[in-house]
Amino acid sequence: MTKTPTTTAARTYGPRQLADRVGLTEWQRERARRIGLIPDPDPATGRWSAAVVEDLAAQADAVLAAVGDLPDVGARRAEDYLAEKLGVELASGTAAELARRGHLPIQGAYKDHTLYCGLTLQRGITRRTVLAASRAGRLHQRDDLPGLLGVRDSDVGHLIRAGLLVPAEEVASSYHRGILVPLYRQADLDRLQRSPRIDWAAVRATGPGRRSPLAQLPTAAPKENRHG
pTM for the full model? Predict the structure, then answer.
């Protein structure tokens, strides 16, 4: 007696099975869904029909080309990738600045670290855009600010007290556990130096031991109360 061939028409695929059949990694499958290459699964089962999966498998090369081969990555890896791709040195803070300017989408986080879109890193940012973001997004430690602004350390203290210098981000200290180190963005320093509120010539002309013109700046309200 001849056995009737088993049909695959009723077979369904879960997320991992779909990825294996089409030849995608897990992150490639998620990206393919995000950009609309993989349709939503059956809402009743959370699975895909064999017909859908076989159609995707037949287009596997096109799907792989569309999703790229760089996963969503953290800031350091994003900046290293762009630096190597463009043959330039990039400042820490470039990835965050690109995102701030709308050029590099954020795609969630991993262990509290922001993840940036790998597909955009591969295909969507010009050299000019990256270099501009590198300059504007460069991050500086507090000790660097007097030299960068051409003022005394006490002057920087007044600017921080008045809320005119605010860290762009804070990172964990490499030397002291539990201590956060504030980092200041170059674009914020540039903007501050254009501020009509400050007579920079007078500040820079004030000699050692003399009271800074910045001492008269009002102290900013605590952050949690500024909008209260």
Answer: 0.81
